[in-house]
Design goal:
Blueprint (H helix, E strand, L loop, with lengths): L3 H19 L1 E3 H8 L3 H13 L3 E4 L2 E4 L8 H18 L6 E5 L3 H5 L9 E5 L13 E5 L3 E3 L4 E3 L1 H8 L3 E7 L2 E3 L3 E4 L2 H12 L1 E8 L11 E4 L6 E5 L4 H8 L4 E5 L2
Parallel strand pairs: 4-5, 4-9, 5-6, 9-12, 12-14, 14-15
Antiparallel strand pairs: 1-3, 2-3, 7-8, 10-11, 11-13
Helix pairs in contact: 2-3, 6-7
């Protein structure tokens, strides 16, 4: 792939610039300005809206009045998540089948796989908005959509995952501690996460930025003894990292 990620980023930057100049534009107007499809515009707008750089409305988007509202903290978190996703993606091998949960960081790893041939299975509806390589096959589990996270849960999702296996899984969480393991605040997602871990035959990877380390929330997704790698950043609490390592988890801290 020739500078694919760089070209995508330039395109998104151009969309932000156009909206700053014209205040608001329709999807069709943006497509004509950039010489790209309306589907690509919608996908880019979805990403930019989540980042707080534009504000979507039906059929188009408008500028964010003060681009500085997208704070330095948010920029730093986006940078951290991208670095974690890149590292997680480096474990994916050619022709792997991958389980991905509803984590935004786990999902981002799919856009960092270059042109590898792979199959990704996920209950994250937002995968439809992701820039991913043409050699990848994406499978949605099916199930009941839970908003605003756009997670597929329930009996259909459980049945789907229970009938499939993966070579590797990359999952995120809301909290991870040596004492309580991997946790999430949503019961229905915890059930899917457990199944993802159980049905993975190879590496089991957790991606979690520093805010999640040492934090426990309501429902257990998995025990540390079931996990091979925790990928986090250099801001993570050193004492908790040491305790997690003592549980047999290999911890990779990305310098930030």
């Amino acid at each position: 792939m020739k500078n694919t990620n760089e070209l995508i980023q330039k395109r998104k930057n151009k969309i932000v610039s156009l909206l700053q100049e014209f205040n608001a534009l329709s999807v069709l107007e943006l497509a004509n300005q950039l010489g790209i499809s309306e589907i690509t515009v919608r996908r880019d707008l979805a990403t930019l809206d989540r980042m707080g750089l534009v504000r979507r409305f039906h059929g188009g988007a408008e500028k964010v009045n003060n681009i500085d509202d997208y704070t330095e903290e948010n920029r730093q978190l986006d940078c951290i998540k991208l670095q974690l996703a890149k590292k997680a993606a480096s474990f994916i091998q050619e022709n792997d089948t991958i389980f991905i949960n509803t984590s935004s960081t786990a999902l981002l790893s799919l856009s960092q796989t270059g042109d590898k041939r792979l199959t990704a299975i996920t209950n994250n509806v937002k995968v439809a908005n992701l820039d991913h390589n043409p050699n990848s096959t994406i499978i949605l589990s099916g199930g009941e959509i839970r908003f605003p996270k756009e997670a597929l849960v329930g009996d259909i999702a459980i049945d789907s995952f229970s009938k499939m296996k993966a070579d590797i899984c990359i999952i995120g969480c809301s909290g991870i501690t040596a004492e309580d393991g991997i946790t999430t605040p949503i019961f229905h997602e915890a059930k899917i996460n457990k199944l993802i871990i159980d049905r993975t035959q190879g590496l089991k990877i957790v991606v979690a930025d520093y805010r999640k380390i040492g934090k426990t929330v309501s429902f257990l997704s998995g025990r540390l003894e079931e996990i091979d790698y925790l990928i986090t950043d250099s801001f993570a609490d050193a004492h908790m990292i040491e305790k997690i390592e003592q549980k047999g988890v290999k911890v990779i801290q990305i310098p930030i």
